[in-house]
Automatic annotation (TrEMBL):
Domain of life: Bacteria
Lineage summary: Bacteria, Pseudomonadati, Bacteroidota, Bacteroidia, Bacteroidales
InterPro entries: DUF4230
Protein name per the record: DUF4230 domain-containing protein
């Protein structure tokens, strides 16, 4: 009876020690995670990639005559009514990651492995320049020159085409890789093996996502 009593006490103490050990381990995990979160939040807005894109914007505006003749519709291009323009456009794009909202939900730990999910990247147009000396216009005598408003509109269309191609440019992947160059050293200092560290976005972004990732002239939208 006494032996059984001692056994029960030892078992209870062992379980209590194990529970305390698990609590200590869990607390250590939380402390490590909080330490990482605090360090990452100090990065605030981290600019991770920059691209210079050169594009020739080409526009063709032929003069057309439309109407009906003998109950038949016609649409004829007038040979002497052409006008064309070529606009050399240089656009600077920068990608950044805003870590101000980074928290424990962005960090997943599983044993020795840690996965950090980055906030959605943003791509901002920091400058858009036209080489006015290289702008070429061909305007027929029967037509007027392009107006400044038309040239500005063509330039904006060129920018839009560049922005739509961002996923193919590789700037988002560069942003992820450069963010990893900043975060991996932080994690290795916390004791993680670099081979067990995964830095990723929450999804692979496509052209359809770009309107919600872009910033231009102070306009921003939140990606859902």
């Amino acid at each position: 009876m006494k032996t059984t009593f001692y056994f029960v006490i030892v078992l209870c103490l062992s379980l209590l020690s194990a529970c305390r050990g698990e609590e200590t381990k869990a607390e250590a995990v939380r402390v490590d995670t909080l330490s990482l979160v605090m360090q990452v939040k100090e990065c605030a807005r981290l600019y991770t990639a920059e691209y210079e894109v050169h594009k020739l914007v080409l526009k063709d505006d032929p003069l057309r005559v439309k109407g009906n003749l003998f109950q038949r519709a016609f649409d004829v291009k007038v040979p002497i009514g052409e006008r064309k323009v070529m606009i050399p456009l240089d656009v600077t794009l920068k990608a950044y990651i805003d870590f101000t909202g980074f928290d424990e939900k962005n960090v997943l730990r599983s044993g020795d492995r840690i996965v950090v999910t980055l906030p959605d990247p943003r791509v901002v147009v920091t400058s858009s320049r036209i080489n006015h000396d290289e702008v070429k216009q061909f305007v027929s005598l029967t037509r007027s020159d392009y107006t400044s408003a038309e040239l500005t509109d063509f330039t904006r269309q060129g920018e839009d085409e560049i922005l739509a191609s961002v996923p193919q440019l590789g700037i988002l992947e560069m942003a992820r890789e450069n963010a990893a160059h900043v975060l991996v050293p932080m994690l290795t200092r916390l004791g993680y093996d670099e081979r067990n560290i995964v830095i990723s976005f929450r999804k692979d972004f496509t052209t359809a996502d770009m309107p919600l990732l872009l910033e231009r002239e102070g306009r921003t939208e939140k990606l859902k």
